[in-house]
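[job 0412] stage=fold_complex status=start
inputs:
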Amino acid sequence: MANNKTFLVVLMVFQVLALNAQSGNTIVLEEVILSDVKLLHFSNGIKVTVLKDSVIQRNGTSLTDLLQFNSTIYFKENGYGMISSPSFRGTNASQTAVVWNGININSQLSGQTDFNTISPQNYKDVVVRSGGGSVQFGSGAIGGSVHLNDTFLFQEHYYNQLVFGYGSFQTKNVTYKTAYGTDKWSLSLGANYKISENDYNYLGTDRKNENGAYNNLDVKATVGYFLSKAKVLKLYHNTFIGDRDFSGTITAAAKDHYKDVTSRSLLEWGNFNGHKISRVKLAYLYEKYRYYPNKEKSDFSYGSSNNLIFNYDYKYTVGNFIFNGIADFNVISAEGTNIENAHRNMFSGTFLLTHHLSEKFRYGVNIRKEVVNDYDSPLLFSMDTNYDVSDRYSINLNASKNYRIPTFNDLYWVGAGAIGNKEVTPESSFQAELGQHIKGEKYTLGLTAYYIISEDLIQWKPNDAGNWMPVNIKDAYNYGLEASLDLRQQWHIHQLSWKNLYAYSKSVDKDTNKQLIYVPFHKITSNIAYQYKAWELYHQLLYNGQVYTTSDNSDFLQGYVLSNIGVGRSFEIDKVISGKIGVKINNLFNKNYQNVAYRPMPNRNYQLNISIKF
Amino acid sequence: MKIKHAILASLAFGLLFTSCENDNDDNKRSLGDYDRGILISNEGPFQNGSGTVSYVSYDLNEVENEIYKKVNNEDLGNIVQSIGFYDKKAFIVVNNSNAIVVADRFTFKKLGAITEGLHNPRYFTAANGKGYVTNWGDPNDNNDDFVAIINLVDFTVEGTIPVEFGPEVLEEENDMVYVAHQGAWGFNNKISVIDPATDKVVKIIPVGDVPNSMAFDDADNLWVMCAGKPSYSGEETKGELVKINTTTNTVANTFEFTTTDHPKQLVEEDNSIYYTLNSNVYSMTATATSLPTSPLLEGVSFYTMRVDDGKLYGTDAKDYNSKGDLTIYNINSKEIIKTIPVGIIPGGIYFN
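[job 0412] stage=fold_complex status=done
writing structure:
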């Protein structure tokens, strides 16, 4: 009852805002070109890291590769290029949200995103937002969220870009990008195709990764058009088509094969009236997979989901306050070999507030309530604040309640040996975080400590009849420390950049007091890049500490250090045609490593890239 | 699930051992490090990793885990389903690796491996100088299930016998091999009888749904525990305990449970039948005319169970992702004698 009341209050505030709407006529530029303003305005006291174009290009082929070497997230890959799931701040795979242009795109079926099915190459930047964000970004934003954002450019421009890549294990990729714009139009189109035999050696054995071949196609497009001076229509689209054999393990060969398609479309109508901005969004998300237990046979099992989203977003700026009310309606359906006609209607109301109390001090208060037909959803809230103590030193603080909703698999799975449970409720977590940043001309130093309590974690375990079934059984707590140090140095035409991250994660099962599986205590990344005229030389280093592979911590995988090195040179053929050529060596020291037990990762390998812009 | 030979062997060895324990242990020559004890097969982590074998001495004082790896410095493979015995050899069935690893049952030194001709192998038994191994084939294909015939000299698959779908445990008695068709990921309700002289299925005996375990009593009757179909199947059926006369290969008696009762883990010892139902262990004599009403032990959750020499051995797989336990009960006093940590998902108990 109390929750319902709060929900009504949210709605009322939202209506009052709408009534008070007044007209203005200046266009807030960043609002127009960005797709996800919640990330911009309502993340005051949150640690947000932006991975720029240049960084993406060095690790461009999969989101796993990119974040592995440039964030504190630990990845569990079932062999290179196979299913990849994150552990962010010691949380599990469904506790990291992937957000595409402001929309949570974690699978409705599994609750997770396979980070090897996202091609980061065609995004201008990838943003890692650490910590809870369920109020803004929905289910799963517990450890943090990863944001893929398209931007629009409303000015005269036109270019084409072609990228060719060739590497070890017969890995080939080709990317085509084009963009065109005027002061009224912004158009972009990108396509990326990658194919690999992926038959790397299992170091220390005479065997290879026999069943690991993959190929995938990623297509994306954006269209932006000014209907009038203050009204913009934007269309976003992305389709990913993956086709993979699934690698076996050291102890068991595999013949599995997997095909998946994910497609996202978003139509957005924005009305920018100075301090009043309203947006109407209509989105459609589709996912489908086919799993072939034996690729030599035609038998497969499948699953698919459709998600239709209607979203109304009204933002009002008055004085130093920004208010934002969001009403969101989702109609989701899923079906498959193991799921029959499952439906979900979800309505959520969100209220966000940011107040710039002074130049130095700002804070935000945010709440969200959902009404869903198939489970009870808790009231979510968050508070965050940032205080600039001096020009160089700032402190941020945030606390939030977040959740992970039961997936369609959790609720509706029907199959031999496993069965869904309609009684499961959302996992909930409460967390707090304190961060400090020191900024100088040539350095940035960050230090963040966090604490997360998670309750009612959903776990599949055999019931009395021996069938696997999900239950809200586990409580856990995580705490940790994250440190970052960026150094920049420039002498004439020499440029040096050195970015370092360190994360300590303690993630404990409350019942057993044991560290959760596949959470490393320590992770370090260190990337150094040197530029001289058209030349660039870089080195990437990753240290993943020891992880336990059994819940009683009786077995573990050793920690390892990985090293990649690359060199590149950009060139200009004439005023219009320019390009870049690069060579990269991955796993320079031929380290035998695994991030999931019994699933070896690649030996030393090479990659050549040529990009031409015209 | 369990091999008749192992029961016989265990009886013999168990008695021998008890007697020589009273004398001087050193006088009796050991056949290897893992003689005179219990072998536990541990399936290992579900998706990736290797199963293991644990050894516990009969006096429960000596415990050694991962004995195969220790002796041979290699992994057994993914999902160690069961162990069958013939002669002095242990046939370790590795389900997901589609292999059988053959080792000396007392020293655990590797003697060979069968890696061709098996497809989702489940259980092994020997008869007429040959090995017989149930195979699911492709679990999604109900028409490719078979029993592989193993050459016990050169460790190869020398033939296959197509059978009804979902063959699981199999036992040899009176020169016949009895195969229970539990139904793989689905449900079946048959016992096939294979004649090892011709390697043909000579009879199919219909029983209750989901026959999951079986054993012979002193009069050579075959007792088959049928769980019945679970509620999630949409057509729940009652559990049944079926007694088969192995002279005529016909059903002699059927004991019915209630529709929501799904018994499992039947074993036989000293002409008594033991089984588990709803977290309890029940026992009855092989001559009983009705099912027992009060349990022998309450509040247990066994992944597998065996009874030997007045002791009941049960394993706990815990959360299926950590080391399990073997707990030994004194059947008379119903007290726990000892709980011993073993490997991940301990699925088989064998008396060596």
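[job 0412] summary: Chain B has a mean pLDDT of 90.
[job 0412] exit 0
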